[in-house]
Design brief:
434 Repressor (Amino-terminal Domain), four-stranded parallel sheet, Rossmann fold, alpha/beta, homodimer, elongated, DNA-binding
DNA sequence: CATATTTATGAAAACATTTGCAAAACTATT
DNA sequence: AATAGTTTTGCAAATGTTTTCATAAATATG
């Protein structure tokens, strides 16, 4: 069936097989309603016989959309980004778009290089993760006049439409929750903030919210811990050896909080009666861990889906007023890992 | 700098700006050594001034490689696939390839449709996940004579080179481990196997290994549980209410095992003294959970990396004998969640 | 049945590149 | 300074499509 010597079938091969011109075959795909039903059937069979597959590259040089969207993330290794990407991909696939995916590992230089590559492929739009990017990146996008959305974080005055959660709000919510339970001796654990505006914003707002309530976090209770359960477990285990312990631990994300829970368990301490542990993110599994984790939900799936919708809209209705930002509000999720300070 | 009226700069714009012909600009990119250093510099500056970005679509219709690889996975929502994809992407990025990513959610029909789309984009190669696919999928790949590797699973006689772990071996290893600890009353929990050859192979080999040792799993101890911590926790909590309990539980993957651990904790049972729990996968976090999970390591990162290398080799040295399969052997990882049966 | 409309198709130009070939510009050699 | 050899460059054809415009075929109108 799909033999046809060796060269790949092109539109002309099909045209000959159907005894029509190449233009007619082109119309068969792009404006089938213009064809006589009989011709349509003839081409249909010719396409089948020759095993022809349209060549989007050839279409793209006519200024026709490539049908691809560039997705730039820090890493897939954080389950939360994988979730966002999955939702984004599903969302744009409905409109026939395929994603080009690349990760920069928090290296801004690489982000620029990847973006260039995306543009060489003539993507119809790009999504970046987070609000902060190299100025060169923004300029490149501007110069190519290509739709862009920033996903994951939300901020009112972002350079491009931002679709995501307000990190400051997330940080504030969790800090206020812990304060409301009466805690004053509070430790904090955040990932290294280099090149990561999300983590940075969260940490700063947590600290300032605490300070506003008159609570300062002593230096030895301020951890900078890489994003991994084992690192967090190690640091928390260490922290809990000392006799002067905090009554609460605020973690920058649920992975760190999970490690903290394990660390407390390893030390034989009860959560929350000995120590309250909270995270940010509401990752998969956070609700099932023992004890279930109190956290702030960042609606990853919704963010991915909405970012996809927004970008597709931007692509399809190019030129019009760009789609606006959208705040997918974070929400405090109270579970068992937090409790009132025990006197 | 990158102004230039409104139309995007093409190779002719650059040529004019540098006062050379388009061919020379083309050579500047593809065979720079053929150019006089002075010309090179002139073009260099013209490229910069015009903000020109090469158009890979236009190159691709000359039979030049597109520089893209299609990656087809079931879903990114399983952290383990995200990990494989991340490693794959990093690996091929070294050689300048960008990935087109799509997930089919275990729907074979969608897999075919996605593959077609990849081919329209003229990907230089494709990776599929797992060994089993619709015959139409294989035929399509054959007819387009495009390099393909199957990743994640390994089997000697696979239709295309397979790079991954031998699932039968993984299942056998974990079953033998549990048997070697003296367990006879064994429960099993596996994900639904529809359209998922990996899960199926694992389950069947575990069961047959047990049977060979004279152990049969009674029907009420045979769980088909969706891939989620909460579903597993629920089922295990239920299982452990009955007074006649198994002494060991073999889970088809670490997510289910994690839920099982939580379920046991919720019931106040000790692992491993009351019940042994084991998984398959060695996901991130499996080593840190309390108690640390005994499992079989499926080397996701290595698989992704090797699959990337193999495919790139297949693309670059097209025509030659295709790169062979590679077995990334699974390996039993003994931790605290398994112990000898207590009499 | 001839003419006017409408519908369906083909020819050729356009798209942004690469590349084979030939001409032009240099260098080296005498 | 003329010639031969080499390096550098430009022209034009080719790539696989889409699209505009013109023409041919089919249908409707009188």
């Amino acid at each position: 069936m799909t033999d046809k010597k060796h060269k790949k079938a092109d539109i002309i091969t099909v045209a000959q097989a159907a005894r029509v011109s190449a233009s007619t075959v082109s119309r068969y795909f792009n404006h089938p309603e213009l064809l006589k039903p009989a011709t349509r059937k003839r081409i249909d069979s010719a396409v089948r016989r020759t095993g022809y597959i349209r060549n989007r590259a050839a279409q793209t040089i006519h200024g026709i959309r490539s049908g691809t969207i560039g997705v730039l993330i820090p890493t897939l290794d954080h389950a939360i980004f994988a979730e966002v990407v999955q939702a984004f991909s599903d969302s744009v696939a409905e409109d026939g778009f395929t994603i080009l995916l690349a990760s920069h590992g928090y290296d801004l230089q690489r982000e620029y290089a990847i973006l260039r590559k995306f543009l060489e492929h003539r993507v119809d739009g790009v999504v970046l993760t987070g609000l902060d990017h190299d100025e060169a990146v923004f300029q490149l996008i501007d110069s190519q006049k290509i739709p862009c959305v920033l996903m994951w974080n939300y901020a009112a005055g972002s350079r491009y439409p931002s679709i995501g959660a307000d990190n400051e709000m997330a940080g504030r919510l969790i800090a206020e929750h812990v304060l409301s339970l009466g805690h004053r001796d509070i430790a904090c654990m955040f990932p290294p903030t280099g090149g990561n505006d999300r983590a940075m914003a969260r940490r700063d707002i947590v600290l300032s919210t605490l300070k506003k309530a008159g609570v300062t976090v002593p230096d030895p209770w301020m951890f900078e811990t890489v994003y991994s359960i084992s690192a967090s477990k190690r640091d928390v285990t260490e922290l809990l050896t000392h006799d002067h312990r905090p009554t609460a631990l605020i973690c920058g994300n649920d992975i760190l909080a999970t490690g903290a829970l394990y660390g407390a368990a390893a030390r034989g301490l009860d959560v929350p009666s000995d120590i309250t542990v909270v995270g940010i993110g509401d990752f998969k599994g956070s609700s099932d861990i023992e004890p279930a984790l109190t956290t702030v939900r960042l609606p990853a799936r919704r963010i991915g889906r909405e970012a996809g919708k927004a970008l597709v809209t931007g692509i399809i209705s190019a030129g019009e007023d760009p789609a606006g930002s959208l705040h997918c509000a974070p929400e405090i999720i109270r579970r068992q890992s937090s409790g009132p300070v025990s006197q």
